[in-house]
């Protein structure tokens, strides 16, 4: 009975209840058998060929027989199959591809395992399977615990032996190639001397025992000399191999594989010819190994021919370094990938980079060479494990050619890293300096190259590149990076005064970044720096750069002190021009802190997108400014754009976290606290817990900034827990003490906000109104705020903003309207732009309404509306106002106009129709409901006239009105 009939018989007689399989696959079906074949270590792709064609490896047939035997027991049937094959003793490549290879394999292996020392010589043209046979014999012999020496006599063996030894590929390949360079052999130019040199080299490679496998190609050379007999006569590669064979001790088993038998001496060891696989053998092999159809196998065969080496590589059976290096296309691919790996870059590699290293499209590689790559053109390419082992054995001169091609890659953000690193490994320092000058943001790729730059570049070029390394890390705030500090101190050791001055300015920047202002000022006062600041414009480029950076540093120091006049003077100095886009960024920062909003926006928008890192920071500052000035939608767009630019520029995770945290605040201000909380979760993943103190301050800041988001969701307990975690991190900051103290004050303020939120009993989302009666939570909020407000605010802009926010919150936490009006008035005195004034007047209007002064409250509301219109046109490029503040004013206006009854409620319905106000509708109607509750029964009758169903709702008006007026989604 054949396989197919036996399987049909078993399926028919399987007992009831045993027909189901895992995942719904029918037990005994072809799919079930494929799964079972795979589970037992067989090739599932071979199943159908065995059943329908009776073709397959003995191992796969044995596994299928075992499966069917188990099924036959269940069915209670005797299994009648074709004769069961014995254990697989031959590799598939030999079992399926020719009797001669099988005979040689068995003969040699039987001899060595029996303790004999057989000597066999084979020959065959390229692709006939010699390398495959040698590889499988090596594996089989080693599996028996015997020592194998493999010798590859191909090309210029003197050069190859030295290259292989230098690369360490001898051990990695698992083959003892040529160990030791030929330099140990006495040099000479006579034929006899050349022959003696070859003989010495050969004797050094003959093992005293074990097994020797030798591959000999027709292009064998020794430097520029052909192979020679001991008497100096030139011979063919085969003739030299015959002489070499005489040097091998009789106890050593030897198999010699020749590419060309020409010149093999008569009477020497007999030679067995190897033939490429027949078309039928090759096709069957591909069907079995790849599980493809006969037609697909025929198409692959057209590409590979009957070359057994290529067939095995295509089928993924090639595991020999020697075999891969012997193939020209695979060798070129290995050289190209080694060029990429030498650059210390990680796979997968972009398709365009691999193409450039190869010199042609990846798709143009023969199919057997492409089989050595994992991945695809879209996601990039990675060498498979066998090719990866081979890469280290490729000679450096071949790798250099690929590296030179990589150095000609076009400029672009995704390719610059390959081009710049190739230039460095080629020691093209001048080109590297010019390339970074053209694309300053590409300096982010230099830190990885700093060790080779420091070791190999000339002094002038090393200093130019060191400056870019320092600038890169400084721009990311990574002043403590080992490579940044090494590059900086190499500049401080320079013989040139301007170079040392520039480095000292950067040292001062690092002190400022760490919050050590006095150390920064001391570095800035150093004679080297002061001398540079006194120079005219005719100075060299180092002096000009040092001048510009020193002035920007002076501006930064003045900004942190709150001296905006001095900061403006420094940043507007014409000598800052060499800093390029950095000048626009700093001028925008200073103008922003000084309250010159249009000027700030103009400078921030002047930072070009060709500098992704700087433009990302400019967009962040623009977003922060628009958020402060009451334009949260434009702010959110700018912040998300900043995050995208920063990621493109390779910015730090910490900086990205700060930007996204601010974007989360913008989402909260737009009435989307759920989205804000989700974004905050991503922020915290970017900055995981760390023992480094600087990271503790940043993490504390990010935790603290989540508190208002949690309060907007009404989660006061979670907010208090978050505050406790942030304050614990700030307890012992060690570094950046001034920053840590500010973050402590801001977190204490947010704790007060938490008690305020719990005290008023509504989420911290506008509209908000002050309380009618006191609670313990409100008492706690006021105590915290009063304590914080006892300290006079610093002159810095952020301290002024914090104090303003605390005054507004203090007014909201106060049940007594007259006291609330006091705090609102003090906040009003601090306002410096329309949005802040509108906020203060809204809080003042709330206090007046609570005091019963409706006319005065209406006046404040109208002023706030006027200010809000000024917000819409107060900055370039936008006509948007803050929907949260609009909602606050609508609620206040409705509360003030409740005497008009239905008209006010109808007006409010229309006013809340605008989409940006939708997230705030619930709160507006809640506040109107609270106000109507104060009118008693008339207020309830007013609502019931509009909503008769209110009669059936046992709810307070503050709860009922939002349900009745806001559509439920």
Structural commentary:
By secondary structure, the chain is mainly alpha-helical. It has 50 helices and 7 strands. The strands form 2 sheets. A 5-stranded parallel sheet has the order 2-3-4-1-5, sandwiched between helices. A hairpin with a 3-residue loop joins strand 6 (373-376) and strand 7. Helix 16 (328-342) packs across helix 19. The protein is elongated and about 125 Å long. Residues 162-188 have low confidence and may be disordered. Residues 1-12 have a biased composition (Basic and acidic residues).
Describe the structure in brief:
With 969 residues, this protein is mostly helical. It is built from 50 helices and seven strands. InterPro entries: P-loop_NTPase (IPR027417), TPR-like_helical_dom_sf (IPR011990).
Draw up the topology in text.
Elements: H1 3-13, H2 30-39, H3 47-53, H4 58-75, H5 92-95, H6 99-113, E1 119-123, H7 130-143, E2 148-153, H8 157-167, H9 169-173, H10 191-203, E3 211-216, H11 237-246, E4 253-258, E5 271-273, H12 279-290, H13 294-304, H14 308-314, H15 321-326, H16 328-342, H17 351-358, H18 367-370, E6 373-376, E7 380-383, H19 385-391, H20 396-406, H21 416-425, H22 429-438, H23 450-456, H24 459-475, H25 482-492, H26 497-513, H27 517-524, H28 527-533, H29 541-561, H30 564-571, H31 581-594, H32 597-605, H33 612-628, H34 632-648, H35 653-669, H36 673-686, H37 693-705, H38 707-712, H39 716-730, H40 737-760, H41 776-789, H42 797-812, H43 817-830, H44 834-850, H45 854-873, H46 883-896, H47 902-911, H48 921-933, H49 937-946, H50 957-965
Helix pairs in contact: 1-4, 6-7, 12-13, 16-17, 16-19, 16-20, 17-20, 22-24, 23-24, 24-25, 24-26, 25-26, 26-27, 26-29, 27-29, 29-30, 29-31, 30-31, 31-32, 31-33, 32-33, 33-34, 33-35, 34-35, 35-36, 35-37, 37-39, 37-40, 39-40, 40-41, 40-42, 41-42, 42-43, 43-44, 44-45, 44-46, 45-46, 46-48, 48-50
């Amino acid at each position: 009975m054949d396989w197919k009939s036996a399987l049909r018989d078993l399926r028919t007689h399987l007992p009831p209840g045993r027909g189901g399989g895992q995942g719904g696959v029918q037990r005994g079906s072809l799919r079930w058998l494929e799964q079972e074949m795979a589970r037992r270590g067989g090739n599932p792709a071979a199943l159908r060929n065995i059943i329908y064609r009776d073709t397959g490896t003995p191992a796969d047939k044995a596994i299928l027989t075992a499966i069917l035997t188990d099924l036959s027991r269940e069915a209670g049937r005797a299994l009648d199959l074709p004769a069961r094959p014995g254990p697989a003793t031959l590799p598939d490549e030999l079992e399926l591809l020719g009797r001669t290879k099988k005979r040689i394999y068995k003969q040699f292996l039987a001899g060595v395992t029996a303790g004999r020392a057989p000597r066999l010589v084979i020959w065959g043209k390229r692709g006939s399977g010699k390398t495959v046979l040698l590889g499988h014999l090596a594996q089989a012999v080693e599996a028996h615990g015997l020592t194998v020496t493999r010798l590859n006599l191909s090309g210029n063996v003197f050069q190859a032996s030295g290259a292989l030894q230098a690369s360490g590929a001898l051990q990695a390949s698992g083959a003892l190639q040529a160990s030791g360079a030929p330099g140990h052999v006495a040099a000479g130019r006579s034929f006899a001397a050349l022959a003696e040199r070859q003989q010495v080299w050969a004797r050094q490679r003959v093992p005293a025992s074990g097994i020797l496998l030798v591959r000999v190609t027709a292009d064998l050379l020794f430097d520029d000399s052909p192979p020679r007999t001991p008497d100096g006569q030139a011979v063919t590669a085969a003739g030299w191999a015959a002489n070499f064979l005489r040097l091998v001790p009789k106890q050593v088993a030897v198999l010699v594989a020749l590419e060309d038998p020409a010149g093999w001496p008569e009477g020497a060891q007999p030679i067995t010819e190897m033939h490429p696989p027949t078309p039928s053998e090759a096709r069957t092999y591909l069907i079995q190994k790849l599980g493809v159809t006969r037609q697909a196998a025929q198409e692959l065969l057209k590409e590979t021919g009957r070359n057994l080496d290529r067939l095995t590589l295509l089928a993924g059976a090639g595991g020999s370094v020697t075999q891969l290096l012997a193939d020209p296309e695979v060798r070129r691919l290995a050289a190209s990938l080694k060029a990429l790996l030498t650059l210390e870059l990680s796979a997968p590699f972009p398709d365009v980079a691999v193409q450039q290293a190869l010199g042609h499209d990846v798709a143009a590689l023969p199919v057997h060479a492409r089989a050595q790559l994992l991945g695809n053109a879209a996601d990039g390419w990675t060498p498979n494990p066998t090719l990866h082992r081979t890469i280290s054995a490729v000679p450096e001169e071949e790798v250099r050619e690929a590296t030179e091609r990589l150095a000609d890659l076009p400029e672009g953000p995704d390719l610059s890293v390959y081009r710049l690193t190739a230039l460095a490994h080629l020691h093209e320092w001048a080109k590297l300096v010019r390339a970074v000058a053209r694309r300053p943001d590409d300096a982010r790729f230099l830190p990885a190259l700093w060790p080779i730059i420091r070791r190999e570049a000339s002094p002038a070029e090393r200093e130019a590149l060191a400056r870019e390394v320092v600038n890169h890390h400084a721009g990311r705030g990574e002043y403590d990076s080992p490579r940044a500090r090494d590059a900086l101190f190499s500049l401080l050791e320079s013989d040139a005064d301007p170079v040392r001055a520039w480095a000292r300015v950067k040292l001062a920047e690092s002190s400022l970044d760490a919050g050590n202002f006095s150390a920064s000022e001391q570095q800035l006062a150093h004679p080297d720096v002061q001398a540079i600041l006194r120079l005219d414009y005719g100075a060299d480029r180092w002096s000009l750069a040092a001048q510009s950076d020193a002035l920007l540093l002076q501006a930064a120091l003045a900004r942190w002190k709150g001296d905006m006049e001095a900061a403006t003077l420094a940043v507007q100095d014409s000598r800052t021009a060499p800093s390029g886009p950095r000048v626009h960024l700093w001028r925008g920062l200073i103008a922003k802190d000084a309250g010159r909003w249009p000027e700030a926006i103009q400078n921030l928008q002047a930072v070009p997108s060709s500098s992704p890192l700087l433009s990302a920071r400019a967009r962040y500052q623009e977003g922060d400014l628009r958020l402060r000035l009451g334009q949260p939608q434009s702010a959110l767009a700018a912040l998300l754009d900043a995050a995208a630019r920063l990621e493109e520029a390779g910015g730090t995770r910490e900086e990205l976290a700060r930007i996204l945290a601010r974007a989360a605040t913008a989402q909260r201000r737009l009435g989307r606290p759920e989205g804000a909380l989700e974004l905050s979760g991503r922020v915290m993943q970017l900055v995981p817990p760390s023992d480094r103190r600087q990271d503790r301050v940043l993490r504390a800041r990010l935790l603290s900034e989540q508190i208002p988001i949690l309060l907007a969701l009404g989660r006061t307990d979670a907010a208090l827990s978050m505050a406790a975690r942030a304050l614990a991190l700030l307890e012992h900051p060690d570094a950046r003490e001034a920053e840590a103290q500010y973050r402590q004050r801001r977190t204490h303020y947010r704790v007060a906000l938490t008690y305020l939120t719990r005290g008023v009993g509504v989420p911290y989302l506008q509209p908000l109104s002050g309380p009618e009666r006191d609670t313990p939570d409100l008492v706690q909020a006021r105590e915290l705020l009063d304590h914080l407000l006892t300290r006079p605010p610093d002159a810095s802009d952020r301290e002024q903003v914090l104090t303003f926010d605390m005054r507004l919150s203090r007014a909201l936490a106060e049940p007594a309207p007259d006291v609330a009006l006091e705090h609102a008035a003090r906040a009003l005195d601090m306002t410096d732009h329309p949005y802040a004034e509108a906020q203060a007047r809204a809080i003042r209007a709330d206090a007046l309404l609570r005091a019963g002064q409706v006319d005065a409250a209406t006046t404040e509301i109208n002023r706030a509306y006027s200010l809000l219109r000024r917000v819409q046109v107060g900055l370039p490029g936008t006509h948007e106002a803050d929907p949260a503040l609009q909602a606050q004013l609508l609620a206040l206006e409705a509360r003030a106009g409740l005497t008009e009854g239905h008209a006010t409620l109808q007006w409010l319905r229309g006013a809340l129709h605008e989409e940006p106000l939708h997230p705030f509708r619930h709160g507006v109607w809640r506040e109107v409901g609270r106000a109507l509750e104060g009118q008693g029964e008339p207020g309830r009758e007013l609502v019931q006239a509009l909503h008769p169903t209110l009669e059936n709702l046992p709810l307070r008006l503050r709860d009922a009105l939002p349900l009745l007026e806001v559509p439920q989604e």
